[in-house]
Amino acid sequence: MSNRTVNINVHHVARIEGHGNIVLNATNGKIEKLQWQVPEAPRAAGPVD
Description:
By secondary structure, this protein is mostly beta strands. It is 0% helix and 31% strand. A two-stranded antiparallel sheet has the order 1-2. The model has no long low-confidence stretch (mean pLDDT 79).
């Protein structure tokens, strides 16, 4: 039997336009990859009235 603890906390995420992703890959209790991804869509530049 293995003893493992996993804690994932995401606090105070605000003003994200669209969506965000959290990617966490772990092997044998070791984090191999941890990413916070917030893709930003291209914004059209146009006249401001």
